[in-house]
Design brief:
Keywords: Pyridoxal phosphate. This is UDP-4-amino-4,6-dideoxy-N-acetyl-beta-L-altrosamine transaminase. It contains 13 helices and 15 strands. With 403 residues, it is an alpha/beta fold. The protein is globular. The structure holds pyridoxal-5'-phosphate. Pyridoxal-5'-phosphate (PLP) binds next to α3 and α4.
Length: 403
């Protein structure tokens, strides 16, 4: 949405004629054929493709199990159920995330407790986590923000010390690697999302990976109404048609149509990430010498999956706030974004009595960030347009030399 009252800096034409989105899917003929094949077959949902997709996801991340869901949010809800979160339990997460990372706690009657972020990595700060633990704490939900793995070793130590379950929100991080281990093989449960802006897509969809059989079985049962047909689990058994519902689950199943798209997309994930990494390096190169911006932090011992490329503005070197700079970039037809509004800023959370000031590092970061376009289908010319626009706008608003 453009602000119609604002003009392009210095007048004239915007740098781009057409709008460049901040993220988008890449669907090729093989993807289309895979979906069409399911449509021509016998099963539209819960057929053979779903288990193949789950198997391939598990193989790719190096986990024992993978359970697919209708969305990443449904997958997080199921993980909270499987972790045993119930009324009054506290769960520690980051405010610098999409609302779903905290909403899933509320679905189960739990209480989200927000721990502040590390000001350099923008990921949840393990020291802040430990300071918030009480007898009611049950779980930690770290987010691999932008695709950069959270401090998983330190979080594991805390979880072991206090007997907590880790549900890793890796919606951004399919394909990321931390100290030689793929994200998805490390935490008790890991969630990936397949929304179209994420690293691969199924339209809507999500998955939980885990190495724990008991958790896996709960996840599977939760996504289909709490129903089981497993003879070992049945309380009664009236015959071959018989099944039982053991707890209140949901219909959170992924269709075979979605799974077919996911399988086809998964074959391309490493190429997608390679392209994202290449484009991110071009941004780094172009902005390295600009004093007014801080570039994304890169951990030495981890590989990011480069879901998002976020620049942080040094507002003391700029004459205007992030809002003016954001609007000026929009005028150039650059599709930028802000990830994220701290979760507890939302009116719903404010009504639950979360106060501003809770996580100062996250609140400060929120004032200073802009997400630049980054997706594998971007051309070098697209990247050059963004670079040109950022340089134009930042130079225009720089406080340097204008004093
Ligand atoms: C996208 C996203 C989700 C939710 O995934 P959906 O598949 O859209 O439900 C959760 N957490 C984070 C950090 C996300 O980016």
């Amino acid at each position: 949405m453009k602000n119609e009252n604002r003009l392009v800096i210095n007048g004239g034409k915007p740098i781009r004629d057409t709008y460049l989105p901040y993220g988008r899917q890449w669907i090729d003929e093989a993807d289309i054929e895979a979906v069409v094949n399911v449509l021509k077959g016998d099963f539209l949902t819960t057929g053979p493709v779903i288990s193949r997709f789950e198997q391939q996801i598990a193989n790719y991340v190096g986990s024992k199990y993978a359970a697919a869901f209708s969305s990443g949010t449904a997958a997080l809800h199921a993980a909270c159920f499987a972790a045993g979160i119930s009324e009054g339990d506290e769960v520690i997460t980051t405010p610098m995330t999409f609302a779903a990372s905290a909403n899933c706690i509320l679905y189960q009657g739990g209480k989200p407790v927000f721990a502040d972020i590390d000001p350099f990595t923008y990921n949840i700060d393990p020291t802040a986590i430990e300071s918030l633990i009480t007898e009611k704490t049950k779980c930690i939900i770290p987010v691999d923000f932008t695709g950069q793995p959270a401090d998983l070793d330190a979080i594991r130590q805390i979880a072991d010390k206090y007997n907590l379950t880790i549900i890793e929100d890796a919606a951004h991080a399919l394909g990321a690697v931390c100290k030689g281990r793929k994200i998805g093989s490390i935490s008790d449960m890991t969630m990936f999302s397949f929304h179209p802006v994420k690293n691969i897509t199924t339209g809507e969809g999500g998955v939980i990976t885990t190495n724990n059989q008991a958790l896996y079985e709960k996840l599977i049962q939760f996504r289909t109404h709490g129903i089981t047909r497993d003879p070992k689990q049945l309380v009664h058994n009236h015959g071959p048609w018989y099944y039982e519902m053991h707890f209140l689950g949901y219909n959170y199943r992924m269709t075979d149509i979605q799974a077919a798209l996911g399988l086809s997309q998964l074959r391309k994930i490493d190429g997608f990430i390679k392209k994202r990494k290449h484009l991110a390096a071009l941004y780094d190169e172009a902005f390295r010498d600009m004093k007014e911006v801080v570039l994304p932090f890169q951990k030495q011992d981890c590989n990011s999956s480069w879901h998002l490329y976020i620049i942080r503005l040094k507002l003391d070197l700029l004459k205007e706030s992030r809002k003016e700079i954001f609007e000026a970039l929009q005028e150039e037809n650059i599709g930028i974004n802000v990830h994220y509004i701290p979760v507890y800023y939302h009116p719903f959370y404010q009504k639950l009595d979360y106060q501003k000031g809770l996580c100062p590092n996250a609140e400060k970061l929120y004032e200073e960030i802009i997400t630049l376009p980054l997706f594998p289908l971007m051309t070098e010319a697209d990247i050059q347009d963004v670079i040109e626009a950022v340089k134009k706008v930042i130079t225009h608003y720089s406080a340097e030399g204008k004093a």
